[in-house]
Every structure is written in C-alpha cells, then in structure tokens.
C-alpha cells in the first residue's frame, strides 16, 4: 500500500537521507601526487663504490616510498658537469645531486671539511660527528644560504695515500713530484714540494702515458683496479690523506620542504642507510681487489715515519692558514670531535686489529 506524505514531510525526509549518505560515506583524503626528481651524479655508472652509492640511494627511495618519490639518476656523460653540480642544483637544472663536498670548496670553503681532511675522521667517527657531534647542523647552516640541504649518502672508508713511480724515502723525495690529487690534501702535500695536478679519474692512465704526472691518488682498490696503476706507478703508499671520504647529496631545500613530512624523513633515513651500506660494500670489494692488484705487480707499503711526520705538520699548518670564518668553525668542530673519540678508536679497534 502506498502512503502519500505531505510535501513538507517529503522535503524533510530527503534532507535527512542526504545527510546520512554524506556522513556514512567513507572519507577519502587527498593523496599527494607522485613526484619524480632528477639527480645529477658526479660518478660514471662504471665506477664501483661511488656510482653504486648513488644508485643505492635512488633505488631505495623509490621502493621505500612505494613509488611516491622516484629519483632519476643522470650520468655525467649526459650532463657534462661532474664537478659543477652544486651550481646546477641552485639553478634548478637538477632537483638534487650525488657528489662530494670538496669539489665545491672554491665556492663554499667550509664544505671542504665535510668530505675529508688528512689524518681526520674514520667513517664511523664521521657518522658519529654528523649525528651526535653537531656536524650535520653545521653542514646545513653553511649551505642554507645557497638553498641547499646537504646529506651524507656514501662513504669510501680508508683510501691509500697514492701510487708513485719512484720510492719515497724522505720528505725531500716528494719535491717536484707531479701528483694527481685535489682539494685540501693537494694543498697539504703541496707544502712539501709536490705539484698537485687536478685530473678526472678517467684521464689518469693517459696522463701517465703522456708523462704529465709522476704519481696519483684515485679512490679505493675496487676502483683503482680499473686503472693499470701497476704498469705506470706500482708503488702504493699507506693511508694519510683520506681516512674516509664522504659522498653527499645536495638537495634543493625548497623542493625538500614541499615534500610531505614522511617523505622528508624517508629521504634522510635512506641517505644514511645508503652511506652505511657503502662502507660494507667497500670492505667487501676492496679487500680482494687489492690482493688482485698485488698479484699483477702492485706493491703496497707504509710511509717512512719521517714522511708521515712531515705530512702531519703540513696538515696542521694548512688548517692554521684557513681564513674563512665558516671553514674555521667547521674545522674546529671536526678536530674537537676527533680529540673526543680518536684515543678510544685506537684503544678498541686499533687494539683488535693489532691482535690479528
């Protein structure tokens, strides 16, 4: 039986029914659109350790974010500015870059110290300084005026001191040696009379062939093994200049701030994870690579004590000569942290290694 309701009752019922439909409907929050960032890299894709840290970071961000943030890695063969990526990010050519800070010390002197300094911090000490010793806050404050957020996203760990054609018995033997080396370490060894030469890694072998250099440092054995150093300069001397070299992300800070809070945290955490994995990757690859190079004729040996002493003094003199206020502040923080932890590292890790 059909019941006829007055018009006023029908309108009231329709209003109630419509309200119930709205209240009962599931709420769908607006989801942020997926974002793709272009990341310029300083590392050709055939370079182990370095390029692997960049691709590790990019791949991990995409997977951890469920595709909400994708990182497209742009090889230097495509952009042609492996040492010019800080400016490229500032100009908006890339959303971020994977590189290392000391490439840009002429533009921003203070950031040189965040890559490495001779006789500085090991990889684990470096991460401790950044995370708990105020290093990251300093890094961010130095690059904030440039609109850049810096993050560490790779570590080479210990690097050897260089490949030489002739034996180095005393500091005098370094005089006049043309050595492929850059940044702060190049300035230090230059104080002992060596001649620093800046060259891309890919041009080292040809520079030896053309007799443009007498010595060279590259990176670590896994990468050095790609260059026939044992043919050109078979003597490899012990570590001094890079107890760890950090690799960095330079992120456009405005684009980072535009990300949802969870993706901001994800980028920070994935960068740190990529850095820690690169330490493990380096140990895994470098140990057998060095043994293989020795089988081909490479000779690894320690520095004579007199040379190490001279390099220590030259490093102290170079640090004392720094005039940029921000650079002095960063150097002071780094050295203070080294003083805090170095003896403990020697007493623990050093002692363990001495028992092997």
Structural class, from helix and strand content?
A: alpha/beta
Distance between the first and last residues' Cα: 97 Å
Q: How many helices does DSSP assign?
A: 14
Q: How many strands appear in the DSSP assignment?
A: 11
Q: Which CATH first-tier class of the domain at 35-155 and 244-286 would you pick?
A: Alpha Beta
Overall radius of gyration: 27 Å
Assign the CATH architecture of the domain at 35-155 and 244-286.
Answer: 3-Layer(aba) Sandwich
Question: Widest sheet: strand order?
Answer: 7-6-8-5-9-11
Taken from the alpha-carbon principal axes, the silhouette is globular
The major pleated sheet works out as: 6 strands, mixed
Q: Please, what is the average pLDDT?
A: 91
Residue windows where pLDDT falls under 50 for at least 5 positions: 1-5, 8-31
- Please state roughly what percent of the residues sit in beta strands, choosing from under 5%, 5-15%, 15-25%, 25-35%, 35-45% or over 45%: 5-15%
Helix content: 40-55%
CATH superfamily of the domain at 35-155 and 244-286: Bacterial extracellular solute-binding protein, family 7
Describe this structure in words.
There is one protein chain. With 356 residues, the protein is an alpha/beta fold. It has a domain at 35-155 and 244-286: D-Maltodextrin-Binding Protein, domain 2. Helices cover 48% and strands 14% of the residues. The chain is built from 14 helices and eleven strands. It has helices at residues 7-24, 50-64, 76-79, 85-90, 123-132, 135-143, 183-190, 204-209, 221-224, 229-232, 253-257, 261-295, 305-320, 325-354, and strands spanning 35-41, 69-74, 96-99, 148-155, 162-164, 178-180, 195-197, 215-216, 235-237, 246-252, 299-301. The strands form two sheets. Strands 7-6-8-5-9-11 form a six-stranded mixed β-sheet. A five-stranded mixed β-sheet has the order 2-1-3-10-4. Helix 2 (50-64) links the parallel strand 1 and strand 2 (69-74). Helix 7 (183-190) crosses helix 13 (305-320). It is globular and about 60 Å long.
